[in-house]
Amino acid sequence: MREVAVIGVGLTKVGHLFSESLRSLFSRAIRGALEDAGNPKIEALYVGNMSAGQFNNQENIAALLSDFAGLNGIPATRIEEGCGSGAAAIYNGYKAVASGVHDFVVVGGVEKMMDTTANDATSIISTVTDQEYEAFLGLSLVGINAMVMRLYMNTFNVDREPFAKFSVQMHENASKNPYAQFPFKISLDKAMNSNPVADPIHLMDCAPLGDGAAALVLCPKEYAKDFTSKPVEIIGAGHGMDNFIFHTRDDFLSLKAIRDAAREAYRMAGITPDEVDVVELHDAFSITAFLSIEDLGFVEKGAAGQLVDEGLIGLDGTLSVNPSGGLKARGHPIGATGVYQMAEIVLQLRGEAGARQVPGAEIGLTNNISGFGASSYVHILRV
Ligand code: COA
């Protein structure tokens, strides 16, 4: 296996981008990444996307997007793994370079969600859960998260405040991120008293709907120095899976897919969780963030709220969580999210994250999940 580095990053701001189409959005991210990488000759394209068919009535998008992004003629593949599609595309691009199949690949993620109504978007998002036992009965993804949040609160004797504080921190970080959908701060009062969506989840516990695209250029580490003075190496990659139907799992408060992916990524990187400086994790809902913090091994079960309460997840905390503002406030254009996460870690490790820079960050980790943790990817990067 060859060592693999990220040499280019391209991002669009996340939001209600009504003046852009799926293809124009994606092309813009790709152009940014290629320019950042010094325009190497690309051999393959991997596109992470959850549901262009339902959001945009457009399938067969790998061929479409490679053509419009100026990459016509190279192998292009779309990768779909629900909310984890972006990280799944990275994992496949990584394997293509590590194995020697390709030298220079582009990995992109795109989702254009705002061309539909919020009701339709909720139904489309629910297709990442089981249609026969869950969605059919009216159980949406937010509904599953709400039940788990209630169980977590009862089991660990935690109230809503630490969850609300998490969201306050995400907005604080996003206020420093020019690519964020919600680049403004919110008060604890606003987070606590925002409208209930599915009790105990309130609006400020949720990631929003949004459009966005992000892209990365990967190549063998040995070639990276010819293109950038700051290559960022992918030193660990793990993929974990769990029972697809939520109620068949042994433990509702721990996501096995995250634990398995993390174990593999830490083993490969030869590091322990306490060596990670900065993490971009999957806070689709504040409860998902708490489970992720715990299942990645940063704290014991039930202790994520304490980490938040003690102010340790901020930019200068012992574990900086989601300096981008996370899914909550940077935004969650679903199939692009995993790529946004890695792009943020690359900018952090290159020291190019501006006002949201985590001081001295050298090791970063990303965690992207699908559905309610049916699968999970963990990548570890080092500068
Ligand atoms: N956080 C903060 N503000 C939000 C928000 C969020 N998650 N979602 C919407 N808003 C804001 C909007 O910007 C808008 O503000 P404005 O009035 O100042 O313009 C206002 O709230 C109402 O927006 P609207 O689009 O009507 O919200 P909505 O009720 O249609 O949607 C949710 C709210 C919670 C249903 C929607 O954000 C949602 O479905 N989130 C979860 C997405 C999800 O499940 N993703 C996949 C997870 S893996």
Mean pLDDT: 97
Order of helices and strands: EHEHHEHEHHHHEEEHEHEHHEHHEE
Unreliable sequence segments: none
Ligands, deduplicated: coenzyme A
User: Main β-sheet: number of strands, strand sense, barrel status?
Assistant: 10 strands, mixed
Indicate the multimeric state: single chain
What is the CATH topology assignment of the domain at 158-206 and 235-382?
Answer: Peroxisomal Thiolase, Chain A, domain 1
Tell me the CATH superfamily of the domain at 158-206 and 235-382.
Answer: Thiolase/Chalcone synthase
* Percentage of residues in DSSP E strands: 15-25%
What would the principal axes of the Cα set say about the shape? globular
* Sheet with the most strands: spatial strand order: 3-2-4-7-1-8-12-11-9-10
Report how far the terminal alpha carbons are from each other: 19 Å
CATH hierarchy, class of the domain at 158-206 and 235-382? Alpha Beta
| Number of E-type strands | 12
Tally of individual helices: 14
For the CA atoms, what is the radius of gyration?
Answer: 19 Å
Q: What fraction, in percent, of the residue positions are helical?
A: 25-40%
Task: Briefly note the structural class of the backbone.
Answer: alpha/beta
Per CATH, the architecture of the domain at 158-206 and 235-382 is: 3-Layer(aba) Sandwich
